Amino acid sequence: VTIHRGDYRPPEWQIPDIALDFELGIEATRVTAALSVVRAAAAPAPLLLRGDGLTPSAVRVDGAVWNDWRLEGSDLIVDLGDRQAATVEVDAVIDPSANTQLMGLYASNGMLCTQCEAEGFRRIAFHPDRPDVLSRYRVRMAGDKAAFPILLSNGNIIESGEGEGGTHWALWEDPWPKPSYLFALVAGDLVVNRDRFTTMSGRAVELGIWVRAGDLDRTHHAMTALKHSMKWDEEVYGREYDLDRFNIVAVSDFNMGAMENKGLNIFNTRYILADPDTATDADYDGVEGVVAHEYFHNWSGNRVTCRDWFQLSLKEGFTVYRDQSFSAAMGSAPVKRIEDVRVLRAAQFPEDAGPLAHPIRPDSYQEISNFYTATVYNKGAEVIRMMATLLGPERFRKGTDLYFARHDGEAATCEDFVRAMEEGGDIDLSQFRRWYEQAGTPKLHLALAQEGEDWFLDVTQTVPPTPGQDDKAPMMMPLRLAAFAMDGSGAALPDTLATLTDVVQRIPLGRFTARPALSVNRGFSAPVIVDYERAPGELAWLAAHDDDPFARYEALQQLMLDTLVAAVSGEAKGREAVIGAVAQTLTGAADDPAFVAEAVLLPSEAFIGDQMVTVDPDAIRRERLALQAAIGAALEREWRAILAQAAPPATDLTPAAKGRRRLRGVALAYLAASGKGDVPGLAFAIFSNADGMTERQAALATLAHGDSDERAHALDIFYQRYRDNPLVLDKWFQVQAWSQRADTVAAVAELARHADFTLANPNRVRALYGAFAGNQAAFHQADGAGYRLLADLVIALDPRNPQTAARMIPPLGRWKRFDEARQALMKAELERILAQPGLSRDVTEQASKSLMG
Ligand code: ARG
Ligand code: ZN
């Protein structure tokens, strides 16, 4: 069944209050849900309660047994006659231990926890389970005290006590009305890191991060991030926390990153636990960013929620933009922007260019879980960022203030957000709304024009056709640009913000005696592809002289990309310019090592492929390695100098220390590519002497590409040392799946049979298969073995965890981008998946859309 955005109808019943009663058990949990329903529709309509895998054992209305109900599929229809209000009570028993989907109430490592977004609540209790039905929840839970010493739910704890036979109970109440997807419950043997935060109006908030015994000393970074987030949201958005408690629980089996349940966030352990011995600097940043993201949802998501799931980007795009801005403020803003753009280009651009392309506000879906995408999240954040750029900080803040004030306590729409921006920012965003309607990455074709000494930039905008959207209209977008006279003479155009609205538009640049160097889409002001041919000399000049760090990065990346794309089609071009520009950039290494490390990194194989008409994975691998080797050899002295300096202590997590470690990792990779005989020994020494995971993992990853004795030795040491730490063991699987060795497909197949590999844990599945599917040359091995491996995984995982299985399909859906032989092999695997009996809705939707192309 396909759900359409235009079919939205307001709910016929509202549920102001809900009382839930849980008798907890790993194999059997009894749930009684008492819904106080009030009719919202003018005409009497039966009460539709969604269920998934539930069997009602009794239905009562206003306390009396009620027989006027029926099951329609898995939903419960209760006929309430012409009543205006009633209390509807339903009992059901569920088995959390059998819940391998990890949606609803499930068991993980002996504890019970929930994941309800988007439609998991219906696996716990019969309920309309739509985000525009908001209720106050009262949750009583009882269970064995030894098995579940800690009992948590949303809001405040009201009462607790002892029961019979070694049981105990707790009563929680959340005063803030919320949709069912924000409900949460946790019961288990947990320890807590406690802290306090005093809000701007003086409310004392008790903070708790709950983990399994033994993990407590890895929660400090998350706690610091939480307190910083609370402060930042007050200062930047004027948003204050609104309960006396804020709890976070870390769970090892989790489909996504984390979940913003009101007052009780539940996290994948990956985004909570960190210490220098087991977490890399990137892991630390991930913890900080996700803790902030979930905290920020308290306003952008919880206080103001979504009317329906088509509006998902309302909360996710905005919240990603908020967490990106927060991380930029905590560290280096240019480096954060470079990372965010890299993610957008790696994950969202291909999605926008493929069979699963959809606007940030989709028009239809079969399974909403398939729409937690890079488009809804990351392109959604870019759309918010463009509005912030168009409005400027003050007017943007006026707009968000208006949005929060106007919609507090409501289930809102993307349109509500844009309207608040329009009114608060005093701007007409009619055309800008197309960003919510049109899929596909716009392309800006640029050309310089000259009239005497007056120069102009001619911009032609096209938006490519996407499935179901053949004709596109031009988008409104902010384009930041500057122009420089490369010889130092003549006027320069300082940083300028142009607003594009038309298909063809001319922007005056000013007077120049010679062709100026153009710095365009500075800071990546619009999420577009810029098509503008520039000579290597101009790019190298910009890489050295542009005053916008992001634009410097872009210039060097473009220079590398042009060189690589030419090399793949057999044309030697620009290699000397690349080496010169990298050398020049490295002179800034002492001042800003993090930026330099990002800038000198070669574009990924996948991104090189994205520039080609037909992707040739083998030639891309070959030419990228060749350029890497050439840079490695030409600048050998520089790389060695970087590595000769002592690494900063792993406990030093300042941006400067992180930057130095990052640059050391890049230096080691370049040196290794150059093939110097002493590199495996050098890498092994770094691996062995490392006092933290950043250096250790970088050295291991470098070794993993080769076939030295040191490789096997290091992998073995790493495994023995960390076999009992699941998050670190994930890295062991991951570095092998990333390997550039020719036997990687076979190695991944072998690792899938390893005793420590399991389909039960999504992190482990992603560590092996997610990393493998991102290893372009290995995944696209010409005989199709990589495709078969991934399809086998999807088929094996689907019956157990359809949501995570469906997330593995998009790499197979990119078949149009490859040669005919690969196309046939990829399509055959999609067809094989679709031929499986009893396939989930999740996988069916992704595989069938992928096949259609
Ligand atoms: N709202 C969560 C977040 O972004 C993600 C939850 C997604 N859950 C799901 N089952 N798709 O922070
Ligand atoms: Zn989110």
In short:
By secondary structure, the protein is α+β, with helices and mostly antiparallel strands. It is 40% helix and 22% strand.
Describe the secondary-structure layout.
Layout lengths: L2 E2 L8 E11 L5 E11 L7 E3 L6 E6 L2 E2 L3 E4 L2 E4 L6 E10 L9 E5 L2 E5 L19 E10 L5 E4 L2 E7 L4 E12 L6 E4 L2 E8 L5 E8 L8 H18 L7 E7 L6 E2 L4 E5 L12 H16 L8 E2 L5 H19 L2 H20 L11 E2 L8 H34 L3 E2 L1 H12 L8 H4 L5 E9 L2 E9 L14 E8 L8 E8 L3 E8 L5 E4 L8 E3 L4 H10 L3 H20 L6 H12 L6 H8 L4 H6 L6 H18 L1 H9 L10 H19 L5 H11 L3 H12 L4 H14 L3 H12 L6 H8 L10 H12 L2 H4 L5 H13 L4 H5 L13 H15 L6 H12 L1
Parallel strand pairs: 2-12, 18-19, 19-21, 22-24, 25-31
Antiparallel strand pairs: 1-23, 2-3, 3-9, 4-8, 5-6, 5-9, 7-8, 10-11, 11-16, 12-15, 13-16, 14-15, 17-18, 20-21, 25-26, 26-29, 27-28, 27-30
Helix pairs in contact: 1-2, 2-3, 3-4, 3-5, 4-5, 5-6, 8-9, 8-10, 9-10, 9-11, 9-13, 10-13, 11-15, 13-15, 14-15, 15-17, 16-17, 16-18, 18-19, 19-21, 23-25, 25-26
The structure holds arginine (ARG) and zinc ion.
